[in-house]
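lol ok so funny story. i was supposed to be doing the assay writeup but got distracted and ended up predicting the structure for this chain instead. priorities right. anyway since i did it might as well share w the group, maybe its usefull for someone
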Amino acid sequence: MARRRAGRRPKGHPVTDPYSQFKRLRFERNQPGVLEIVFDGPNLNAVDEETHSEIPAIWPVIDRDPEVRAVLVRGEGKAFSAGGDFALIDAQIEDYDVRMRVMRESRDLFYNIINCSKPIISAIHGPAVGAGLVVALMADISVAATNARIIDGHTRLGVTAGDHAAMVWPLLCGMAKAKYLLLTCREISGADAESAGLVSLSVAPEDLLEKAREIAGELSGGAQEAIRWTKYSMNQWYRQQGPIFDASLGLEFLGFGGPDVREGVASHRERRKPVFRPEAYS
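and the output, tada:
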C-alpha cells in the first residue's frame, strides 16, 4: 500500500473557508483583493447577540487572509445598521453574564479594528447606530450618503456613550461638536458629518457603493506595506487613548445595571419621551 506523504492533502480534500464560521455576516468578493462584509438582517440590520459576537471576531481572520488587501463594510437594504436589537439590550439589563460578555466583545471590536492591518472602508447609508456605527466610523475611510442618518443614542437610552464615541469622536470632529452630538443624541446627516469631519467624505446616495468600491480597489492595488504601516502609525492616536476608551466602556456597562436604562428602553418601545431620575451619583 502506497503511503501518503506527510503534509500533503489527498485529492478531493475540502479546503476550509475561514469565513464559514460566521453565520450572521455576509461576504462578497466583487473585485480583486477586496472583501465586502455585508450587514444583512431583519429590522434594518439590527445587531442581535450572534451578530454582536461575530463583528469583533472577523477582524483577526481578515488580518490572516493573504487574499484580502482591503475591506469594504456596508449594509443591505435601507440601512447600514440600526444598532442593537431590544432582545440584546434586555439580556444585558437582566443577565450579568450577558452584560460582561457583550462588554468584552465591545472592547475586542474596538481594538481588533484598530489592529487589523488591512485598510477598512465603510459605505454608510440610512440609519447608522450602535455597534454598526462603531465599524462605520472606525473604518480608515468612511464614505457616507449625503442623507445617511448617523446617531449615537447612548444617553437617550440611559447609559454612557462608551463603545467608541467618547474617545473617537473628539479626534474626528473636535471636542465641542462631539459633546454636543453625544450629550444630546442629535442625529447628523452624512453631508453634515463630512462638514464636521466625522466621516471622510459624503456622496449622493446613488453614487455611494460605486465610490466606496472605487476607493477599496485603489487601496487593494496600492503599495501594501506603505498603506498598512501608515494605518498602523496613524492608529497610534487611538492606542494612546486606550485608557479613555476603557473607562468610558466600563461606565457604559455599569449603566446597564441601573434604573435609567430601563426607562430608556420603555420609552423607546412606547414611543414617548423618557422621564429619567433627576438624581445622579457622580
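The chain has one domain: 25-266. The chain has 14 helices and ten strands.
back to the writeup now i swear
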